[in-house]
């Protein structure tokens, strides 16, 4: 069943009261101390000089505070790790044109569905068995993942609730396994655990075989107890997955009701979304003028925003 077209409809406005209540209960966010925490984080950044953020506004800083239970010292350490990761892996961030990642979508390795789970969290689905490392270099998988995480951070919903990842390992073979070296494993863990304000609520592993068990041994020493508690193994049992994510919020291939959505469709929808394009450019991403709709290009130029 082919997936219908859809647009990226990020919730860029203020979160609903229900989400703010969740933030109070689970993120340590409090109306009476929110501004104080932001000011304290900003002061720490200036005083220690360990990183040079490209933004210092409240909206940006609060992403890091929410990811670390509104403890300014921990939020600062996360921010330092965030910029250090970007510096140490500059090849993943420099001269990245999002719409040039179409081959990742065409390969069906990554999907970002337009729907949420039953608790309002976004999903990121990986079908590793579809990955041909000769056609899609592993760096492009990182670039596509980082782009999805940066987009997700534009939504306060995601800052508060975190996201879910599903790793489908059906048909995985040695050509994929050989790509996961110790240094790559370390980079994956740093990205998911300690170097991004995009928090991971849970990771679900499905259709995994003995080959993955060998690969997972490489990750185990890198994971703390908190992260290990967020990883769920389901074997080939979709009903086990359903205990965490309701079938109404899953693709048909996992016993759900939705068609497969391509990462390519998601990329294409950026062409007509002025707010998203502007935010992506502020993060360092680039676009060719012909890649965007004339209206989006016109508005960007009116705002003196350079596309590349």
UniProtKB/TrEMBL annotation:
Residues 89-262 form the CRAL-TRIO domain. One of its GO terms (molecular function) is phosphatidylinositol bisphosphate binding. It comes from the Eukaryota. One of its GO terms (cellular component) is membrane. It holds the Pfam family CRAL_TRIO. InterPro entries: CRAL-TRIO_dom, CRAL-TRIO_dom_sf, CRAL/TRIO_N_dom, CRAL/TRIO_N_dom_sf. SUPFAM superfamilies: CRAL/TRIO domain, CRAL/TRIO N-terminal domain. This is Alpha-tocopherol transfer protein-like. It comes from Papilio xuthus (Asian swallowtail butterfly). The lineage of its organism: Eukaryota, Metazoa, Ecdysozoa, Arthropoda, Hexapoda.
């Amino acid at each position: 069943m082919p997936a219908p077209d859809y647009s990226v409809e990020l919730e860029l406005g203020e979160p609903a009261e229900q989400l703010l209540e969740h933030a109070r209960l689970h993120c340590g966010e409090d109306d009476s101390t929110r501004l104080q925490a932001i000011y304290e984080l900003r002061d720490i950044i200036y005083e220690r000089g360990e990183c040079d953020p490209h933004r210092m506004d409240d909206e940006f800083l609060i992403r890091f505070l929410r990811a670390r239970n509104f403890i300014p010292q921990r939020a600062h350490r996360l921010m330092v790790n965030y910029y250090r990761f970007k510096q140490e892996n500059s090849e993943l961030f420099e001269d990245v044109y999002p719409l040039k990642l179409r081959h990742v979508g065409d390969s069906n390795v990554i999907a970002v569905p337009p729907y949420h789970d039953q608790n309002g969290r976004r999903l990121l689905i990986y079908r590793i068995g579809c990955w041909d490392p000769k056609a899609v270099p592993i760096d492009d998988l990182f670039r596509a993942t980082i782009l999805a995480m940066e987009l997700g951070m534009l939504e306060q919903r995601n800052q508060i609730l975190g996201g879910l990842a599903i790793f489908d390992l059906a048909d995985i073979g040695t050509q994929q396994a050989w790509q996961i070296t110790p240094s790559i494993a370390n980079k994956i863990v740093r990205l998911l655990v300690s170097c991004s304000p995009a928090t991971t609520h849970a990771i679900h592993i499905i259709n995994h075989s003995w080959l993955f068990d060998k690969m997972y041994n490489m990750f185990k020493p890198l994971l703390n107890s908190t992260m290990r508690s967020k990883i769920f193994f389901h074997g080939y049992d979709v009903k086990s997955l359903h205990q965490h994510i309701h079938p109404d919020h899953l693709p048909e291939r996992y016993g759900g009701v939705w068609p497969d959505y391509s990462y390519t469709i998601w990329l294409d929808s950026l062409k007509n979304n002025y707010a998203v394009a502007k935010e992506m450019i502020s993060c360092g991403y680039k676009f060719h003028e012909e890649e965007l709709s004339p209206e989006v290009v016109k508005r960007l130029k009116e705002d003196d925003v350079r596309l590349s």
